[in-house]
Amino acid sequence: MNRYIIRRLLIAIPTLLIISVVVFAILALAPGDPMSQFAANPAVPPEVRENMRHALGLDQPWPVRYVKWLTEFLQGNWGYSFISKVPVIGLVAQRLPNTLAVLGVAYVVSILIAIPIGIISAVRRYTLFDHTATAFAFIGYSIPTFFSGILLIIIFSIKLHWFPFIYDSTLKVHDFSTLMTQISQSIMPITVLALFETATLTRFVRSEMLENLSLDYVRTARSKGLAERVVIIKHALRNSLIPVVTLIALGVPTIFTGAIITEQIFAVPGVGQLLISSIEVNDTPVVMAITFVYAILVVGFNLVADVLYGALDPRIKYT
Questions:
Q1: Of 145, 165, 231, 272, which has the maximum CB count within 10 A?
Q2: How many domains does the structure of the chain reveal?
C-alpha cells in the first residue's frame, strides 16, 4: 500500500506541473490586461503605468513569470492580487468560510439524505417510495441551479418574505438571534445545492444497489440465513459504495472552489464569486492560486478514493 501511494504521488507531481503550466499560459496569452483599468484613467501617467507593470512583473515573458510564481507558491507565498494589492491567501481565507457555510453544509446534507434514499429505493424496487424517489432524482438532476435558485427567491423571498435573498457576509454570529439570521439566509442556497447533489447521488446509489442485490454472493448470504439488514448493509451496500465513493471524493474539491452560479444568484461572497471576478479582470495570481489548489485537491482525493476501495473491497490489493 505504501509503495502504491508513493508511486501515485510521484505521478501526481508532473501532472500538477503540466496543469499549472497550461493554466498559466492560457491566462498570460488571453486577451486583456490587468492594468487596463489604469490605462482608461487619464489621471495616471504612462510612466506610472509602466512602473506598475514592472513592479508586478508583467513586462517579463510569461515563462519567466511562471517560474517565479511556482517558486513562490511552493514556499507558501500565493502572491499578491493585481487588483486589490493584498495577499491572495488572505483573499481566499476571507471568502472560504462563506463557501464552507453554504456549499460544505449542502454537500454533507446531500450525502446524508441520498445514501439512505438510494438504499431504500433499491430494496423496495417499483414501490411508491421507489417511484417517488426516482422522480425526485430526475427532477432534481434536470433542473439547473440558476432556475431553482431564482424560483426559490420568487416564492420564499418576494412572495412570502420568509428568507432574505441577499446573503449578508458581514453578519457575525454571537447570540441566538444572529444564529437564526445566519440559518435563515443560508437555507435557500443550501437547498438549491443540496437538491442537485442529492438527486445525483441518489441515482448512483440506487443503480449500484440494484446491480449488487441481484448477484450470487447476495443470494448466498441470504441462503445462509443472515438477517436481511445484514445482507443489505454488510454485503450489498459495501460493494455498492465503491463507485459512489469516487463520486463523493471528486465532489469534495468543489467545496473549495465554490458554487459559482449559486453564489452569483444569492450574492454569496464565496471563493467561486472571487474566481469569476478575478477571471474578468485578468487577476492572474488569484486565478492561478484557486485553480492550482483545486487541481491538488482533485489529485489528492482521487488517491483517497483509491485507498478507500481497498477498505470497502478486500479483493482489491495495491502493490
A1: 272
A2: 2
The count of other CB atoms within 10 Å of the CB of residue 159 is 9
Q: What is the DSSP string of 28-65?
A: HHSS--TTHHHHT-TTS-HHHHHHHHHHHTTTS-HHHH
Interval 250-298: pLDDT, tens: 888 877 766 777 877 887 888 888 888 888 878 888 888 888 888 888 8
The DSSP call for residue 101 is I
pLDDT tens-digit readout, 192-249? 888 888 988 898 888 888 888 887 888 888 888 878 888 888 778 878 887 888 888 8
235 and 213 within one domain: yes
Judged by DSSP in three states, 172 sits in: coil
Q: Is the pTM of this model over 0.85?
A: no
Q: What is the CA radius of gyration of the chain?
A: 24
Measure the CA–CA gap between 27 and 172, rounded to whole angstroms: 36
* Residue 180 located in a structural domain: yes
Tell me how far apart the alpha carbons of residues 35 and 172 are, in angstroms, rounded to a whole number. Answer: 35
Please report, for the domain that includes residue 126, its CATH number: 1.10.3720.10
Q: How many residues does the chain have?
A: 319
- One domain for residues 102 and 70: no
In whole angstroms, what is the distance from residue 104 CA to residue 263 CA?
A: 13
Is 55 in the same domain as 97?
no
Helix 238-251 vs helix 105-123: crossing angle, to nearest 10: 150
Which domain, by its residues, includes 160?
A: 91-312
Residue 28 lies in a domain: no
Asked if residue 274 lies in contact with residue 169, where contact means CB atoms within 8 angstroms, the answer is no
Residue 211 CA to residue 124 CA, distance in Å, equals 14
